Amino acid sequence: MALSLARMMRLALVGMVAFTSVTSALPASPIPRSTVQAPDTDPFYQPPAGFASKAPGTVLSQRKVDVAFFGLIPLDVEAYQLLYRTTAIDGSAIATVTTIFKPKNAKLDRFVSFATAYDSSATKCQPSYGYQLGSPQNSLISSVELLVIEIYLALGYTVASPDYEGPDAAFGPGRLAGMGVLDGMRAVKSFKSLGLTDNPMVVGVGYSGGAIATGWAASLQPKYASELNLKGWVQGGTPSNVTGTMYQLDNTAFSGFLPAAIVGLSQPSAYGAELSPFISKIITPEGQKSLDTAASECATTDLSAFFEKSIFDTSFQTLGDAFIFDPTIQSVLKQNSMGANKDETPTAPTFVYHAKKDEVIPYADAKKMVDSWCSWDANVKLTTYASGGHATTEIIAIPDAINFVQNAFAGTTKSGCTANTELGSVLNPLALGVELEPILVKLIDGLFHLGDQDSKFKADPVAVLKTNL
Ligand SMILES: *[C@@H]1O[C@H](CO)[C@@H](O)[C@H](O)[C@H]1NC(C)=O
């Protein structure tokens, strides 16, 4: 639900060259990949006995880690991972991990919480695994979004990136992701080794799948974690309505996100108790194969495995079009609509941005969410990008997103609701100041070469995958 593959791979290459300011040279000898263990076998991910009695956000264990771009190019930052207690949909205790990147000369009164779009329901796609030096790169969207994290690091922000899908990698359930983000912020705040001041300011950021987590964190924060010193939220390409998103994605190049979301919503930490028995009743053997793939693979594999397929087809489940009207499904969908309840309105300044012609996540649903929030006295800046689609907008909007983060920390965002439309589709390399110009120039350079590959991807994703991987 974020960058298309061609874009990801191109940006990855561009990024390897671009981020020399925060990455050091390639290691002289190859890193033994066996030293990094996957979440299923790494004991660090297992919470200690009795953790359920701890308050949400409590740090259960910690470690120092080496982090790297694409598992390969070490980042010259101090990095830690925290296992912390968070909450499942049914209110029970679960534990997940956040990865913290602290740059040299970090501002100590603040941090950014970055929800990366891993968009998958397999534990090997957890960002905490992929960020580690020597880790195999399963979750390519997160790998590329590390470039965006690197921009924040270059600006002096400590960044925390939580595994907000929780211990069973549940992609889709917004409330789970929202609590994962908020408890991750609590864990960072209490982690003394960072040297942060008491109750540091925080801004939450995320695009696409990362905006499910960020938008829900923004929605739940006033009630779930009101003590946090929240200064703002930045959410772009927001899948605010799962029903609308489902119809838009079905039978397209991005349909592969749907089996992943069905698996995610059916995890024990999500709606498994209600949803699993129902899905087992209606799923066909072919459909089950797709779910098995989604439960064991990351987004890129999921997309090619379910390319232009439909979850409404009776080869996938026996109810066909009627499946969505089942009361169990309806109840889950209803609980996953952002902007549906007045008492779940963000109170910190919120920047929402979206491409008018977003081909992956419907613009109209995000607009509706903003209209509801604004009718309930929220403080929202809505920017509509008139040209460009889902992936382009993630890049083009970077200067706007970063400016909003800086204004939010400074307390200089406008009050009330404002809306504007941006007509241009070119990233301004000077928008963030001369120091970052080289990074942004590389991003633009990448973008201009993408259009061609992108259309090829739509026609034949497997061929593009093969030439790019
Ligand atoms: C979500 O989208 C569906 C389908 O477009 C629509 O029927 C429903 O009313 C929407 N829900 C909200 C809360 O906007």
Automatic annotation (TrEMBL):
Recall the taxonomic lineage recorded for the source organism.
Eukaryota, Fungi, Dikarya, Ascomycota, Pezizomycotina
Signal peptide (UniProt feature, chain positions): 1-25
Tell me the organism. Answer: Penicillium fimorum
Tell whether Transferase is among the UniProt keywords.
no
Keywords, A to Z, come to: Hydrolase, Signal
Molecular function, one GO term = triacylglycerol lipase activity
Name by which UniProt lists this protein: Lipase secreted
GO biological process: any one?
lipid catabolic process
* Xref: InterPro entries: AB_hydrolase_fold, Lipase_secreted
